[in-house]
Amino acid sequence: MYKVLIIEDDPMIGDMISMYLGEEGFEVIRMETGQKGIEAVKPFAPDVILLDLMLPDMDGLELCRQVRTTLSVPIMIVSMRNKVVERVAALGAGADDYMCKPFSMHEMSARVHALIRRSNLYQNAGDNMRMNQAVRHDTKPETDEALLGDKNKITLDLQTRSMIVQGQLVETTYSEFEIMKCFVNHPGRVYTREDLLQTVRGFDSYVTDRAIDVHIANLRKKIEDNPKEPRRIRTVWGVGYKFVY
């Protein structure tokens, strides 16, 4: 049984989500403050967190950042805030998805399932990678890969939707993986922001030019030796971005 931690101070919304997901077969607990939510994360070990941004004791973005520093559990923001800048800020803080209130319970459930499914794929990819490294160090994985120098290698596994950087599994959001797939498949090609928007639009219904910049910044943190002076994902001023070896 998958577990969902809801951090929501509105009793009507919180109870409604809890009841719906409970009927869907999830184990659900709800906390009404950010502090109680943080304290519940480790003992409850949720498979996904639904997080309101406007909590009585702390800002939801700060809570998101705190959780993300130590855990990779999927986080979906559920908030009345619907401005683009607020959704972008949530992505930058480490959220994996964002839903604006009011919303469809059916869509919310589908997104929760999608987040858990993707998280499990990452976990399985990491387990398989460690097993393969322990048994066959010289085996080349059947994946799309881009070699960066003699030692630096980025490997994308399309089946598990995982990215391995210098032998380490690095988690990405859905949109980040799709952008990275474009870069690895076509190194040197300049992608406009509109190109990348079309790549991720559909899953991330709120994606904007600014959100693309956030995804690029997050990817640089994950693959660059020095994100402030990127050598792999380069900005082409006035046009967009390109990936180089």
From TrEMBL:
Q: Which PROSITE patterns match?
A: OMPR_PHOB, RESPONSE_REGULATORY
Which residue numbers delimit the Response regulatory domain?
A: 3-116
What top-level branch of life does the organism fall under? Answer: Bacteria
For this protein, the DNA-binding region equals 143-245
The keyword Metal-binding is annotated on this UniProt entry:
no
**Modification 4-aspartylphosphate, positions:** 52
Question: What are the UniProt keywords, alphabetically?
Answer: DNA-binding, Phosphoprotein, Transcription, Transcription regulation, Two-component regulatory system
This chain belongs to which protein, by name? Response regulator transcription factor
Provide the species name: Paenibacillus chondroitinus
Taxonomy-wise, where does this protein's organism fall, top ranks first? Bacteria, Bacillati, Bacillota, Bacilli, Bacillales
